[in-house]
Amino acid sequence: MTAGDSGAPAAGSPAAGFFWHERCFWHDPGAIGVFSAPGEFLQPQPASESPESKRRLKNLLEVSGLIDELEVRKPPAATRTDLERFHTPRYLDALEAGDRGRGGNGGDCAPYMPGSLAAARHSAGLAIAAVEAVATGGLANAYALCRPPGHHAEADRGRGFCLLGNIPVAVRRARALGQVGRVAILDWDVHHGNGQQAAFHDDPEVFTVSLHQAGNYPLETGFFDEQGTGAGLGTNLNLPLPPGCGLGAYDYAMTRLVLPAIEAFAPELIVVACGYDACAKDPLGKMLLNSDAFAAMTRQVMTLAASVSQGRLVVVHEGGYSEGYAPLCGHAVIQALAGSAITVPDPQNDEIAAWAYQALQPHQRALIDGWRDAWAAAGRLR
Ligand code: ZN
Predict the structure, then answer these.
(1) pLDDT bucket at 34, cuts 50 / 70 / 90
(2) Catalytic residue list contains 152
(3) What is the signed CA dihedral for 314, 16, 85, 217, rounded to 10 degrees?
């Protein structure tokens, strides 16, 4: 694909893909309550990771008409062979046993009920098909509406609402099949992308970048000094941002370090782990983004992709727990991917942008400049 400076697809380019499956919305985390098991003093309530934020995004695409400008695909579920490229057989066996029984917990805060494994396999299947279609040139770019999310899942356990590592499974498969070489994975979910980091920490061919709220979840990972190991040293970049980062801080982090670092790595494909929990309305994150910010980051990555990876870009849905606001952010991202004129009004966008402390703050600048200087000093920027 070719693209202009705006990052928008050029006329005549293949369409933007939209990968989804109704079964993904049927994953049931069970009686988890908002963030932990209901108890004597925690009134039962739907889980934070409910189908609503994702289903409402799909519905909004239908209502706005944007979905009619997308190449819509409903691919098959991931196979056991696909999953074993990342997950251990023992973990997959345990998931299958739980799914046949009464459900269970994939590990650390990854509860599921019977039927959830089928949803999780379909979720991974969306990422697989989206990566394959873009890597092999069938689509300009693609959005995969994955649920359950995947970026916390590790090889031998689920974590943080994630059962299967959608992106690691998809990227490992595409690389194993020779569909793509170097891959950069950018995770802007408000939580650390520990799953990708763990999957590729010693792989020099896959660059993992995570922009997240410091010390939110998981507590023990996501620090700047985690930079990969062995041959993969220098191919993991964490930006653990302080709570309260808004439009200025995210733009500065992207332009000052994230985008130059990915550009220097020169990937053949960029995959975004796209959570919306850095939005100002999210119950689990403490950041301040609006829908325009997610669209702007998408356009920034599209422009970079146009120069380094022939436009090849896959966006995979991760977290985002504001049922009302995440769909508006998602629509803005997909509109940008498609280069579409179809927009929906975001009644909160301008008010959020006008909040105090949206501009880059001195302590945020100091942190980002420090990381940039260290990354450059290691010879990892052009
Ligand atoms: Zn998250």
Answers:
(1) low
(2) yes
(3) 40
